Amino acid sequence: MAGGAFVLIVSRLSDFTTKDIVRIAALERDVMRDPLTGAFNRRYLDHKLDEEINRSRRLSRPLSALILDLDHFKHINDTYGHPTGDELLRHVCMLIDSHLQTMGTVVRYGGEEFVVVAPDHDINAADALGNRMLRHIADRPLILSDGTKLTVTASVGAAEFDHNDTPAELLLRADEALYVAKRNGRNQLRTATRRQVVTAALEPPLCPFPRGPDGLATMDERSRQQF
């Protein structure tokens, strides 16, 4: 084979590989991102929690998960319309992401719920982080096109990873803590402990929402309207 032909083949292979890598990266980004807010989605959350749980076990480092739910979001949609509701979701996602920086990862969990995965945060650090996020959101209203300031509050449930937890169990405890925050007036954070899960097995369930096949609480439309 002539030297020039060999160089041409290698060059074209290199170009193809570079383009292929870019294309694959773009596809992965689209698959792992929520199209509305640009936050990571639940598919990414599954991967991220597995990764961080393995890291926590290997290095004996703390790990916490926080579930944040916007208060009275249905009322906002009904009053201002769904486009404004979508804009508010993007606004809140941006606020969470800008506040977290390198401290954690924000995921749109569904509807008006976001999950924050916070490596190296025990429950006290997660409590402080969650309360800072609540103030950050409440202090920065969304300015609508007509100049209206749309202030929103949120409720947060936080749970620290126990080394016997599965990802579903960690999120379940955060979800139950979120329900307590909602039940006690909203615009606040509540933390979960391992003891709450043990107690729940002996007493009526803390969270009345139906459970999905993975054990996580789900909220139908009628349930969500209560909050």
At a glance:
InterPro entries: Diguanylate_Cyclase (IPR050469), GGDEF_dom (IPR000160), Nucleotide_cyclase (IPR029787), Rev_trsase/Diguanyl_cyclase (IPR043128). The chain is 54% helix and 16% strand. It has 227 residues and is of the alpha+beta class.
Can you offer a commentary on this structure?
This is diguanylate cyclase. This protein has two domains: 1-32; 36-225, Reverse transcriptase/Diguanylate cyclase domain (Alpha-Beta Plaits, 2-Layer Sandwich). The chain has eight helices and seven strands, in the order ααβααββαβββαβαα. The chain has helices at 3-32, 42-59, 73-80, 82-100, 123-138, 167-183, 194-202, 221-225; strands at residues 63-70, 105-110, 113-119, 142-143, 149-150, 154-160, 189-192. Strand 2 (105-110) and strand 3 (113-119) form a beta hairpin. Helix 3 (73-80) crosses helix 4 and helix 4 packs across helix 5 (123-138). The N and C termini lie far apart (73 Å). Residues 197-227 have low confidence and may be disordered.
